[in-house]
Write a structure and sequence with these properties.
Number of helices: 12
Low-confidence stretches: 115-119
Structural class: alpha/beta
Mean pLDDT: 92
Order of helices and strands: HHHHHHEHEHEHEHEHEHE
Strand order of the largest sheet: 1-7-6-5-2-3-4
Number of strands: 7
Helix content: 40-55%
Distance between the termini: 24 Å
Strand content: 5-15%
Number of domains: 2
CATH class of the largest domain: Alpha Beta
């Protein structure tokens, strides 16, 4: 997905947020923002928003020496998600078809980077979100594909939602080989191997790194191991908006599972702002 001008203010906000987390030195914060502006001025050189965001965040690491500015935020989000796990599992285990509830639970985890500390009654807000239906769902198509599949790749998003993703990976791993891919290095509040393990992802699921330090699985930057797995997996589930931006024109079929939290993504998907989506996008490479 190409970079639109309305992406740039968001990346400026992210840079300022990361700068304040990494250092209290206002002179250094100012230098970070000046460098961010310089990088953003060359946005046409980049193919996707996650790529330019990765360069900005790398510059913040270089200037401050802080490798994971969001470490405390991620730990807090994981702790809060684990506290909510009994409520999440109660919803997921209600009578009826387990697959739709597992998918919706994983999709709802996408709110963890936006809703936790905004003054809402979190439990009630979470239940409201869990009960909201998908605006677009290719669930039946996925269920059919699942019957022929053996190996499933799930590409993770933010650290807090890993707890929610466990509902889905546990369901899938009962009958399939499941690989859960996280970021190769810390980037914003996205999940790394350390974060995934802290959130309890593990038994019955293979954990791997994408090899990228961008807030989305940019294939050109990914490790050879991940690229090979991306091509060979029978099914790929991509979590969140960052991965959608990086993979929205994939070489192979991908199921995107997300909440449309910005108008540009909502418009691209043809849904309302805040809608939940489980959508199959066909790849450009056909067998």
């Amino acid at each position: 997905m190409e970079i639109f001008l309305d992406c740039l203010p968001c990346m400026m906000r992210q840079a300022l947020e990361a700068a304040k987390m990494a250092t209290d030195d206002e002179v250094l914060q100012s230098e970070i923002m000046e460098r961010t502006l310089a990088i953003l001025s060359k946005f046409k050189r980049f193919d996707t928003a996650p790529e330019i965001s990765g360069v900005i965040q790398e510059s913040i690491r270089e200037l401050t020496g802080v490798q994971d500015p969001y470490a405390a935020v991620k730990a807090r989000d994981i702790e809060e998600a684990l506290r909510l796990e009994p409520l999440i599992r109660t919803y997921a285990q209600e009578t009826g078809d387990s697959l739709p509830r597992a998918l919706k639970t994983a999709a709802t985890g996408n709110v963890m980077d936006a809703a936790l500390y905004s003054g809402y009654d979190l439990e009630n807000r979470l239940m409201q979100e869990l009960k909201r239906p998908f605006e677009i769902t290719d669930q039946e198509l996925f269920a059919g594909n699942l019957k022929q599949a053996k190996k499933i790749l799930v590409i993770a998003d933010n650290a807090g939602e890993v707890v929610f993703d466990r509902i889905l990976t546990e369901y899938l791993s009962k009958t399939h080989q499941v690989i859960y891919a996280v970021r190769g290095r810390p980037i914003l509040n996205d999940a790394t191997l350390v974060d995934a393990l802290r959130a309890g992802m593990g038994p019955g699921v293979e954990l791997i790194s994408t090899g990228v330090a961008t807030p989305g699985a940019v294939m050109a930057l990914a490790s050879e191991e991940f690229q090979a797995l991306f091509r060979s997996a029978d099914l790929v589930i991509s979590k969140g908006q960052g991965n959608y931006e990086a993979l929205s024109s994939p070489e192979r079929d991908v199921y995107f599972l997300l909440k449309a939290k910005c108008q540009r993504i909502a418009t691209a998907l043809g849904v309302g702002l805040g809608a939940y989506v489980f959508k199959k996008v066909e790849g450009s490479r056909r067998e």
